[in-house]
Amino acid sequence: MVGTFPLLSVQPTRGLVDEKIQVVVRNLPPALSVTLHSLHRSEDKDLWEAFGHYTSDGQGTVTVAKDASLGGTYEGAEPMGLLWSMQPVPGSRTGLRLRKMDVLTPMVVHISVYSGHITEGFSKQSPLATVVTERWYMAPGVCRIDIREHGVRGTLFLPPGPGPFPGVLDMWGGGGGLVEYRSGLLASHGFVSMALEYLSHDKNRTSDINFKTYFEKAFRIVQEHPMVMKDRVALFGLSLGTSVTLNLAAYSKDISPRCCVCISGSHVNLVNKAIGKVFRNMKKDGYKTRFDEEGRVVCRDIFLPIPTDLGEKVDMGRIKCPLMLVVGEDDQNWATVESAKDMTQMMHAAGNEHLLTILQYPDAGHLIEPPYTPHFRASNFIMPQTRQKLIMLWGGYTKPHAVAQEDCWEKILSFLRQHLYPSPDSTPTLRQSCDVTPKEHQGLSMID
After folding, report:
1. What would the pLDDT profile of 178-189 be if each residue is shown by its tens digit?
2. What pTM value is reported for the model?
3. Other C-beta atoms lying within 10 Å of the C-beta of residue 389
């Protein structure tokens, strides 16, 4: 390496989290063994890394998009392997999960190139070159608005531009709290999206929430916003959010979603008049939970067998709008495969199966998130009501799970555009590369 100066390029240096990066190393000696390494410090101050082993070509270049990694946290030609294969550095706390809670700041990733094929001790070695890249959930011009209205708690994200735009009510699952990053990303793609808090870590508040009125109020907050096309609002649910979505679509007389997206959930009717009953209903079947050989909790059997009694599951024949289901075949948290099969049979019998689209992914797990999010087969989980800490087995395997996340996100966006925008020509083109300074990217935060 004497006399040479490796040139490391990462493009774009600022972009959305679902935008691919191009990583290229030039000016290396031919046939040199190098390691490309990514490093991220999470908001909880934990370090995450990924790395791949490469050999430079005859021109002294490594191009991650087309050259194969020979080993590391991923193998083969994987343009985004330095992100989706991230894992906690050796010696980290157990059960970690990487999630971005402050969407007004980027995920900062240091990408470095090292001489030789190394697998550990990166902090003790000097890289040949390092580049910093920022990954954003909010595109330039997206506005973030805190919602505290009619007892509803959430965060509304508005795309840049005059609108009007389609709307999305975005609901996460049984972990509770307010999760904003998917809504920020949806707004970056031209949808007004509200991340809704409905399972609070405040036990008393959650118990007081009435299922019907709370979610219908939230839907109307989105629908009645002046930047929203009132007849083009979708429901988007993950895990327990799927149960909420299907209940609203089937039984609400006051709201009419234009379409629904459901990830890793079931039509088994967990949601009754009061949200506080959800965990009591699950606790009733708690004897069905089991532990794997490592002591991690497997919950999928709670939902089995799928009920035959229509009173114990959503009547799928009542669904009147297009519905997309996303299913990971190795989901160890919910019985999503069996549920999807039963939902298909119910809709076929009712004559509305034409409304159903199913995306089913072998060896994908429960936590199907936006693209390039690292995979977590298991992680710490705190029950919102009891505050009990568990290690939850979510399922899935790293590479196929990463494939599922990337594939389904593109199909979800296409599905939403197809059913929410009046015509393809009316879909806004938002610049995806966030080539702005952090100060320009702060968006809007205010209390309603």
Report:
1. 999 999 999 999
2. 0.91
3. 10
Q: For the chain, give every domain's residue range.
A: 7-136, 143-426
Residue 360 in tokens: 């089913």
Determine contact, residues 66/56, Cβ cutoff 8 Å: no
User: How much is the CA Rg of the chain, to the nearest whole Å?
Assistant: 23
In the predicted model, what is the mean pLDDT of residues 195-224? 80
What topology does CATH give the domain 7-136?
Immunoglobulin-like (2.60.40)
The domain over range 143-426 is classified in CATH as 3.90.1150.10: no
Residues identified as active-site: 239, 331, 366
Strands 143-149 and 152-158: antiparallel
